[in-house]
Specification:
Chain lengths: 311, 365
């Protein structure tokens, strides 16, 4: 310290530096006002948000007599998994009494091909729009983006007619086509933005190296774009799995996806309202997107950030 | 523009427009076999665009491009016999160095032992053998650029194109790799076209420099000629650091002797070699700071005294800012003879080494 004082110019010799006082990192207190405020808010918001989920889980584990007591927040006195089993395998929708399991497998058979098809097409679209500036690319892109803003409801009836004419109405493949088409604008935008954020010189280097349209796509671009594919998969899996409108319009009772079947279970008017079965069925339906989020959360955030910045 | 016999690369009447914006205008340039040409200019002058046109990465609006006597104007980049090195290295991040080098050869379907042979040769020339199994992210900037050069090398091409390859490196590495590129050229004797905005790179590497501005080649000549006899004020000001001194004034003729007059400064031009017959009128007088003698007595065709304004020591030498008349004037001085601020000093120079430009057009007089 004294060395410091000595090295000061003579003109400031009147100023004396204190020997004690703050030094090193500024101390931080765990219970500072800032921390209490920050974490307090976070905890309150999280509780508020989680409360409905808690009620659902608790109710689904109770028997009907216990539910009729009306204490929806109290934990189950006697835990039973009966409602879950019933929801999965024997709840009735209309004439069928085989539970949600049929709807689950329908949803799987709808979701998997739709996700693969829509992402495959959209990623190639985005790649072509970002890297191969073909004539009319901008017009094409604008048309595609406008498509994202047109409400689905407008197109429901025309699509019914189209599907009827090509003989796919009511079949799962018809619904797969519909989902693929409606996923296209937003996914193309996502992929285009991601690919245009990649250094253009990489693309040029690959062209000098002699790779063509597909060569660059499969050997250069694809291996570099895992994050954005994860984002696209999450968006599509949750979007298609949770879809109700298209499912109810374009399928028949034996091909209903899980969401439609859930609605039919919950809204059935005959007999007693089995709240515990309804809760269990709802959680079961929501489980797939939930699992997808938990598995890929980190990649999702990374990909969203990468794809969204540059446009 | 003079034509060269059997050029390695020949560009004829090349134009490129992006919509209404004209980037290159009827550009002509011939590059001799084994020549090292540097395209030099400020950013936005079209030098990289020209290189991309030669590489086939941009479609031209008009004109033709010949490489090795073959018209390649409509050819794909891979069929032009070129290798290209990019500023950002553009290495494929998911591939190892070896895979990076071999990518083009694998795409072309070349036999495996031939690929191995070529990679071994390139790795030996560039001394990157220990790096072959690494990913680009595990390499330093200089190593990455070496791999990028290697990728052009393995293609066994006639023409190398460099797009500001050293701009992303720090000053020390840049100097090292500059020498390596020069060695590489003398070893391989390929035609090389090199784009840069760095005049040191241009001066040290080039057989000929093409100074560009606004999509037009201002001057195409050997580095020394461009440095000593710039054809216009832009070229004179762009090359040289510290920049050339410019004095605004008039060209006057007293009894058959030409003088350059700027207020109270009068420079006799008896030793100056005029490009064409001079006429009296406004002109700009340019002389480089290192061509001015400092405190070295009389004997110069022009001498004057001036006041020192600022002194900038640069280690090897010192830059002294003066007021000559009321215009700024810089002189390069060896470090031992550094004056103090506000000193009055004498300077002298020979107008033979100067350049005179037309005030209106900027062309050399």
């Amino acid at each position: 310290m004294s060395d410091h004082a000595v090295s000061l110019p003579a003109a400031t010799g009147a100023i004396r530096l204190e020997a004690s006082g703050p030094r090193g990192p500024k101390p931080r207190h765990v219970f500072s006002r800032r921390n209490i405020f920050l974490y307090g808010t976070l905890i309150v918001v999280a509780l508020y948000y989680l409360l409905p989920l808690y009620v659902m889980v608790v109710t689904s584990l109770k028997g009907m007599p216990e539910i009729r007591l009306g204490n929806i927040f109290s934990p189950p006195l006697e835990i039973t998994f009966e409602p879950w089993v019933k929801a999965w395998s024997s709840a009735c929708t209309g004439l069928n009494c085989d539970g949600l399991s049929r709807g689950f497998w329908n949803s799987v058979r709808i979701t998997i091909p739709s996700v693969i098809l829509s992402i495959a097409i959209a990623s190639v679209n985005g790649y072509a729009l970002a890297n191969w500036r073909f004539k009319g690319a901008d017009t094409f892109f604008v048309i595609l983006i406008v498509g994202a803003f047109i409400p689905y409801q407008v197109m429901i009836y025309p699509i019914v007619i189209i599907l009827r004419e090509i003989g796919l109405y009511g079949s799962l493949s018809g619904l797969v086509i519909v989902h693929s088409i409606f996923g296209m604008p937003i996914l193309t935008l996502l992929f285009r933005n991601y690919f245009s954020s990649m250094p253009e010189e990489l693309f040029r280097a690959a062209r000098v190296d002699g790779a063509g349209f597909w060569g660059i796509y499969f050997r250069i671009m694809l291996p570099m774009s895992l994050p954005i594919f994860v984002v696209a998969i999450i968006l599509q899996v949750t979007g298609i799995w949770n879809d109700f409108l298209f499912g109810v319009v374009y399928t028949r009772p034996d091909t209903y996806p899980m969401t439609v079947q859930l609605n039919n279970i919950v809204n059935s008017v005959q007999g007693v309202k089995e709240y515990n079965v309804n809760m269990a069925a709802t959680i079961l339906t929501g489980l797939v997107p939930l699992v997808v989020y938990f598995i890929s959360g980190k990649l999702f955030v990374r990909g969203i950030a990468a794809g969204a910045v540059k446009g | 523009m003079t034509r060269i016999e059997n050029p390695s690369v020949s560009i004829q009447d090349l134009s490129l427009n992006f919509g209404a914006v004209s980037v290159l205008e009827t550009l002509n340039i011939d590059v001799a076999e084994g020549e090292f040409i540097v395209l030099l200019g400020p950013s936005g002058c079209g030098k990289s665009t020209l290189l991309n046109c030669i590489a086939g990465l941009l479609d031209v609006s008009d004109g033709r491009i010949f490489i090795k006597g073959k018209n390649v104007t409509w050819e794909e980049p891979k069929d032009r016999g070129i290798g290209m090195v990019f500023q950002s290295y553009a290495l494929y991040p998911q591939m190892t160095v070896e895979k990076n080098l071999s990518f083009g050869l694998r795409v072309a379907g070349i036999a495996r032992d031939e690929i191995a042979r070529r990679i071994a040769r390139a790795a030996e020339i560039l001394q990157i053998e220990p790096l072959l199994q690494r990913k680009p992210s595990a390499l330093s900037g200089g190593q990455r650029q070496r791999v990028a050069i290697g990728r052009a090398l393995v293609r066994d091409v006639d023409v190398f194109l460099f797009d500001e390859p050293l701009s992303n490196l720090d000053a020390k590495l840049r100097a090292e790799l500059r020498v390596e590129i020069k060695l590489l050229h003398s070893k391989l004797q390929n035609t090389m076209i090199y784009v840069t905005h760095d005049q040191i790179e241009a001066m040290t590497l080039a057989d000929r420099i093409a100074v560009m501005k606004g999509g037009v080649i201002q001057q195409l000549d050997a580095p020394q000629t461009i440095y000593n006899r710039p054809v216009n004020r832009f070229v004179a000001g762009f090359l040289g650091s510290p920049a050339m001194n410019f004095l605004d004034g008039r060209l006057e003729n007293d009894d058959g002797n030409w003088h350059f007059v700027a207020e109270d400064v009068k420079i006799p031009l008896a030793t100056y070699v005029f490009e064409k017959e001079p006429v009296p009128g406004p002109a700009v007088f340019g002389i480089r700071p290192e061509h001015v003698a400092f405190n070295s007595g009389a004997g110069w065709p022009f001498t004057a005294t001036a006041n020192v304004v600022v002194v900038e020591p640069m280690g090897s030498d010192t830059l002294v800012w003066l007021k000559l008349g009321n215009q700024n004037f810089t002189v390069r001085v060896t470090s031992e003879r550094t004056p103090n601020n506000a000193d009055t000093v004498s300077i002298g120079f020979d107008p033979m080494r100067a350049s005179l430009f037309d005030a209106a057009t900027g062309n050399r007089l």
